[in-house]
Specification:
The protein has about 350 residues and is an alpha+beta fold. Helix content is about 25%, strand content about 35%. The protein has nine helices and 21 strands. A hairpin with a 2-residue loop joins strand 4 and strand 5. The chain starts with a strand and ends with a helix. About 35% of the residues are buried.
Length: about 350
């Protein structure tokens, strides 16, 4: 078990390319933290610095109170699961699982016990005498996870471990990783660019953008109260609708339409960016603010329909019942307290809506 402290950590490559800037994260013992963000945001670089595979340009990383900046990866008491499995192709599954323990001089009887325990946990007992080439992608990933489990490390590090699997298998493996982590209680740091994967796995999310932290919080907190337009557009499927607006005298103007905010945005005025989640747009109900939208096209998802409209030159998506007929011009409503307000220039959140505070 371990806590991990990442304090003012930065990474600068040759040529002054700054991949990670002043990152601070406190990871509690047994916590599952997911680093999420687009390609090139610095999440894998940060993970590799924790693992000791990348040098730290500035700041400190501590595991269980011990600063590990200059400690070799093998001596950090962590185990890493890679995207490409990193299995030895000439070894059987058993020997892949046992290899690290043999190198550490673990007694043979203990190695056997640990390998058998991990194999039962991951349901790969029947594959112990096979070599990796005889396994499917999902089975190889289980072996890679088993190799980490047998070590009984203080922390697990996962570097996009599911990205090579097909969509259906990713869902299955997501559940297995979550169950395993809860069962073992091992502190875990997980990297992914898949926001759905991040939402379903994390105790807390760390959203990264261009090497900096945009927001840290529980999945629901980040979803319901995004700290910036970047987070709002990255977390959630579909992404939050973002539109240009202007607030004056308690009224909001979007394009040529004006709606009464009913005191929700008290103290705000001038140009803003408005955020609206797709599920918060409803067919006109007689309550809330009405918006006139032009229907464009729909995506049928079975239980619901994603209807895409145009409003003031922007595409707006609404999650609607498939029973609702879609026509050229439609009136949809939103309760003002479901709106999100961001600074038009910086993209930073201006206020918390009532519904967000209750989430």
């Amino acid at each position: 078990m371990a806590s991990i402290e990442i304090s003012r950590v930065s990474k600068t490559y040759t040529g002054q390319t700054r991949a990670v800037s002043d990152v601070d994260i406190s990871i509690r013992d047994g916590e599952f933290i997911v680093l999420v963000g687009p390609s090139g945001c610095g999440k894998s670089t940060l993970l590799r610095m924790v693992a000791g595979l990348e040098d730290i340009s500035e700041g400190t990383i501590s595991i269980n109170g011990r600063v590990v900046n200059t400690i070799d990866p093998a001596d950090r008491d962590i185990a890493m699961v890679f995207q490409n499995y990193a299995l030895y192709p000439h070894m059987t599954v058993y020997n892949n699982l046992a290899y690290g323990l043999k190198n550490r001089g673990t007694p043979k009887a203990e190695i056997t016990a640990r390998v058998q325990e991990a194999a039962r946990m991951l349901e790969i007992e029947q594959y112990l005498e096979r070599k990796p080439r005889a396994l499917s992608g999902g089975q190889r990933q289980r072996v890679a996870m088993g190799r980490a489990i047998v070590r009984k490390p203080a922390a697990f590090l996962f570097d996009e471990p599911l990205s090579n699997l097909d969509a259906k298998l990713r869902v299955t493996m997501r559940g297995e990783i979550k169950r395993l982590q809860k069962r073992l209680g091992t502190t875990s740091l997980y990297v992914t660019h898949d926001q759905l994967e991040a939402m379903t796995l994390a105790d807390r999310l760390v959203v990264l953008n261009a090497g900096r932290i945009e927001q840290i919080g529980t999945p629901l907190k980040v979803y319901h109260e995004p700290a910036s337009t970047f987070v709002a557009s990255f977390i959630g499927a579909p992404a939050m609708n973002l539109m240009d607006g202007h607030i004056e005298g308690g009224n909001l103007r979007i394009g040529d339409q004006t709606i009464d905010l009913g005191g929700v945005a008290e103290g705000l005025s001038g140009n803003v960016t408005i955020g609206i989640r797709a599920e918060d747009l409803k067919i006109e109900t007689g309550s809330g603010a009405a918006l006139r939208l032009e229907f464009d096209y729909a995506e049928e998802l079975g239980a619901l329909r994603l209807a895409h409209f145009t409003l003031a030159g922007r595409t707006v998506t609404a999650a609607l019942s498939p029973d609702i007929p879609l026509t050229g011009t439609m009136m949809l409503t939103i309760l003002p307290e479901k709106m999100h307000f961001f600074d038009a220039a910086s993209g930073q959140r201006l206020s918390s809506c009532g519904a967000c505070l209750a989430a």
